[in-house]
UniProtKB/TrEMBL annotation:
Family annotation (Pfam families): FtsX
A GO CC term attached to the entry: plasma membrane
Keyword field: Cell membrane, Membrane, Transmembrane, Transmembrane helix
Keyword Cell membrane: yes
UniProt domain ABC3 transporter permease C-terminal: residue ranges: 273-399, 790-908
Keyword Cytoplasm applies: no
Classification lineage: Bacteria, Bacillati, Bacillota, Bacilli, Bacillales
Source organism (scientific name): Paenibacillus paeoniae
InterPro entries per record: ABC3_permease_C, Macrolide_Exporter_MacB
Recorded coiled-coil stretches: none
Protein name listed in UniProt: ABC transporter permease
Protein family according to the UniProt entry: Belongs to the ABC-4 integral membrane protein family.
Amino acid sequence: MIDSSIVWRMALGNLRKHWKETLLTVFAGSIGAILIAISFVNYTSVQQSGKDWMETRLGPIDWRIVPENPDSGEFTTTEIGAIRNRIKQERSFFMLPYVAAEAALVAQEADGGGEGRALKSVMLMGFQHEDAIRADPQRARLWGSGLGDDELILSKRMADLLAVRKGDAVKLVSGEQSLLMRVKDIANEQGLTGYRDSGRFVGNAIATEKTIRMLKGDLKSTSYPAILMGNHDLARSKAGMFYLNEVKYQIQTIKVEYQNKVAKMNLSIIMGLISAVAIVSSLLFMRQSLIMVADSRREMYGMFRAIGMPKRSVGMMFLVEAFILSSLSASAAVIVGMGAGYGLVRLFYQSFSDQLSRMTGEIIPIEPHLTLGGAVIVFGTIFLLLVIVSLMAEAKASRFSVVETLRGETPEEHSGGRPMRYGKKVMLGLGIFMTISHLLMVFVAPPSLEGGASLLWIVLFWIASCCTVLFLAIRMLRLLEKPMIMLLSLMGIPRISAMLAFKYPRVHGGRTYTIGLLFALVMMIVSFTVAITSIVMSSNDVNRVDQTIFGYGGYAVYQHESERTALMNMASEDKGISDKLTGMTYVEPFMISFVKNGAAQAVVPVSEDLLRGPELPLLERSGAFKSDREAWEAVAADPSYIILPSSYLGNTTFFPDVGPLKAGDTFTFPVYENKLRGLKEEWTPVYEKAFTIAGIIQGVAGRIHVSDLYGVTFVNPATVEELKPFGFKWVNQTAKGYVLFRFDHTNISLAQELEKRFILNGFMRFTVPYVNNSAEQLMNKQLSVAFIGFTVFSGLIGLMGLAIIQYRAVKERSKGIAMMRCVGVAGKQIYWMFVVEGFVIGAIGLLSGWAIGATGSRLFIEATMKDQPSYEQGAVNYPHEWILLILTGLLIVSLLMNIAPARAALKLKAADALRMKNE
């Protein structure tokens, strides 16, 4: 029957005749589908941009290995040989020992008349080209062509920045030396031509090892400071590689680190939640629109049935019409949605790219990616969803009585008082079960948010809970009908308006539920997004959590005393550094085991330099001291005092026989030897020391990312010497100590200037935690912009869809309005009927959405709080003020949305409305 030409002609004729209705239905069907397309563009853009970025920077490179103490040695010829022998056994591996230097490149004018463009902070890189061929066999011709000591290989991006071509001259400047070089080749920036050790470099240039060693003044050396490693076996895990007993080195999993950076940029989980709600909204829009189309055709379908047309033919006529509308909606969604996605990716992901680049030296450039294959996938997905909705709408549209239809009765009017059907009871029972399950997830046993399957169930139960709560709220509204009518009458609203306003939702239950659910879904996702954004922005706020080490904003690592002396002398003698500093000291922490079966804690002395700095606040202080300052001074003066880390605060597992220690207590701490123990071996103290707890302080290791300061404990300098024989270092603690520098660390430009001065003096490991964490916070801000922008866009088009349904509802009720006008109902009373009716439905939907949105966001808040230290457990709170403000705003919007249809109803004259046909 679907191939019958008459069915297609009549379907197309209906769409042309009612062209306004067709446009509205296509728009309603494409609303949520647009968000599907936007989500697809966002996901593919992040994935592809991250893949391109990693290919540019790393290519086949997976790891970087450095000597165990990188600042005190390099890989010797013997060690390089040992690693090569192992790689011969692991045939899929490759190694690339390299030397590097920082340089500036200055392009020479072609006519020799002067200098052109210049680039600073270029990483000059040299390696054996035989190793490069094994590492990058796809460009074997480039690496096998040979490279002279006065030649360079540049990436195309670097060549474009310098405005040079193959064969042009470039001056290479490193320190006080300069060389005139020729551009031997220009290659795509990929792998070895895009690699750089850190983000401070703008790019790299490939030279010979001899050239770089000459610039470094170490021409006779044959050692290497680092080795790049990789594995051509794509199935091999990138998380780790082999170890050698005869060579001690640290493995830096740089590819995994890059993958983690890309993962942080991917909002697929949050965007997926928002999109899931948008998809449900879209399907509701389309279903309601198609049902409205069916209602407008009902009289015509009744006439066809009355003259003998089979029910199947009438249903097929509507189905063809619905398929055409679905294809138009899907096409519009792909065109508009993918275009909008392209613009939104550019807007959201590049909002802070310049500022991030200045702070970190590198960012992941997220560029929008659109493909024909992607567009086909999106179109097919959207069309399939809309076809399913069309089949559901056809099943409902074909259920009508010919006699009732010819009399002008609607199914809702005829069945308004019928009891709930068995199928609906089953659905309600399932919904109640899913709601209870959702609440158990929130308040009793929060599930893991990892894994696609578990997340899918969480989202399914979340949306089902919203649907169920709204259904129950609407049913409860019937019980509140009389009190609400009385209350509205006291407010000055005509009683007949209130009575009529409650009659329509009761008779047209399906439409009432749909409109309320749309409001509920909008509020649910808005409240969820605001809560998540609040968490993202407040977590690790650099201005809320101290970013210093004992009041010192920067630090540099050293491995031996001579390096510490050289570092401190340089900082004192370099005016570019010393003039900016207000203090300098050093610490050499070691670990002590005070707790059996527990983690060790770092021990640090309270020195005069520490007391001269800003006062470090205590979480808890002994009552013997009037201020935190007195507590610190007591520890500095008396070996019997100690300041413990926050892990002791309220802890009953450390010393179960004693209970939780608190400030002011005196306790004899056992000191345990650091060694491996058997399962039944007793923990026997090797030393004991009695301390009075002067105070308890918040730890610094987590936010500063320095494991040497884990569980930092402050004692008297004499106590440090007493405990040092029992101290030890963890395997990953390779530093001997830290030189600390005090300056205005919140001044990012000053911190970056100091970093450059340290680099120029040959010290590469100067770190300012505030700058690093500020960059992370700025990245979080960029993600929050994406959250909010996507949700606002979703909410706006959702409300536009609601406006369409309200507009069509007024048009459908034109005859009823005319009849009310004929029997004497005043225009003001009709106006208030529409306002009250729409506002009540909107308010119920918004309040239901707020309740379920709050529980959904709580799941994520609980998951976030699990990773927070105990002393920060109250730092992230539900943003009640913002939610109430948004709820109020949406209530006002719902009120305004109903004013326009109410005024439109008043414009209908009774005589004209009675003559109107359904549109």
